[in-house]
Amino acid sequence: MNIIIFGPPGAGKGTQSDNLVKDFNLIKVSTGDLLRDEIKKGSLLGKNIEKIIDKGKFVPDKIINDLIEIILSKKDYLNRLIFDGFPRNLNQVKSFEYLLKTYNQKISCVFTLNVDKKNILKRILGRQICSQCGLIFNIYFKPANKTNHNCDSKYLIRRSDDNEKTIADRYATYVKETFPILKYYQKQNLLHEINGMNEIERIYKEICSIMGSLET
Length: 216
Ligand code: AMP
Description:
alpha/beta; three-stranded antiparallel sheet; binds adenosine monophosphate; 16% strand; five-stranded parallel sheet; single chain; 8 strands
């Protein structure tokens, strides 16, 4: 089944997606990660993307849709995807619907993690990502340690857009552009609202119980 997970920046989408990937044999599609991969390559496109991300703005839809099409066209990934950070606006939803039809796929379930602005700030400022394995930690809520992380702690880094100024811009962009999408999925009876301010394990339990109730 294909799943989408929504939530403002820092809501815990990446952490919950990583759990689902492990337990349900899914493949995570994080457009943010794909864009950061392009930045790492140092290409001209990557340099342009970096400027946009560091301002907390959205990368043009055409770039995003091309990345998504590459993923949706892979036969090995058929109906095994979890989308984190996509779609982000109504235009992306429209292109997504078209691509899903083209590649004979559908969305089975949509989660949205509700977290208020105060908590978001704390979460983002505490966020650490391992540059080796990609796992996400938080110095306040989920510190990396020997049992949950195999790489050396020197690889734990902060994202360049995880600063107070950019967070405010990213949050405002989310409310303006992404929030309206939720109504679209609600109308299709696909949306499940989750209290994203609970503990990570409790949120995951709730997500799993919804997953268990879905027809495969
Ligand atoms: P994320 O890792 O999902 O927090 O995304 C980091 C940044 O990448 C966002 O603030 C945007 O600048 C950009 N980005 C990620 N996904 C998208 C998308 N679907 N559409 C446009 N921009 C995106």
